[in-house]
Structures are given as C-alpha cells and as structure tokens.
Amino acid sequence: MRIIAKRTLQNFWDRFPTAKQQLLSWYQIFNKNSFLNSSEIKSIFGSADFVGNNKVIFNICGNHFRLIVKINYDTQIGYVLFIGTHSEYNDLTDIKNL
To answer: Edge to edge, what strands does the sheet with 65-72 contain?
Structure first.
C-alpha cells in the first residue's frame, strides 16, 4: 500500500523524536503490505479504530500520539489526514470531516 504523505510523518517525528521509531515501523508495515479490508488491518494493528468512510485511527507510542489515515482499498493508497498528540486529537471537532 502506498502512503501519502510520508513527509507529514517526518515533520511530526522531527517535532516529537520519541514517535519516530513507531511511525517508521507503521510506515514500513503499510508500505510492504496490501490490505484488502479493515479486518486485515485489525489483524496487525489490534488497537486500530475504524470511524467510517474508510478512516482508521492508530495509537502511536502507547496512545501518546494519534494517526488518522483514510484508506482506499481499491487503489491501495493510504492518505495521512492527521498526526498529532493525544490532546490535539481531542481538540478535533469532527473526525468524519477530515
């Protein structure tokens, strides 16, 4: 699966170096695999939450950070919509409109 945009992840781990290793691991897993549905994602990322419209929330670094990705299973592209601290995530007013 292709991830759009890795640069967003890199900018984040430049701000929060403790997130770098887990974000790199997440990226490598997604980049090397094809996911046909949410069940396949859940089998690898057991704590992933699915919020509708093919959006997935991943806990990073023990839930200190949140990553929201929109998945297009047909084209095998994942779009990074949000990466932030847990408190920044809590400030989001409506995840479904990301």
So the answer is: 2-4, 77-85, 65-72, 55-60, 49-50
How many residues would you count in the chain?
A: 98
DSSP 3-state of 60: strand
CA distances (Å), 51 to each of 20, 48, 79, 92, in order? Answer: 25, 10, 15, 14
What does pTM read for this prediction? 0.91
pLDDT in tens, the chain (98 residues): 999 989 999 999 999 999 999 999 999 999 999 999 999 999 999 999 999 899 999 999 988 999 999 999 999 999 999 999 988 888 886 666 66
Q: Is the peptide bond before 19 cis (omega within 30 degrees of 0)?
A: no
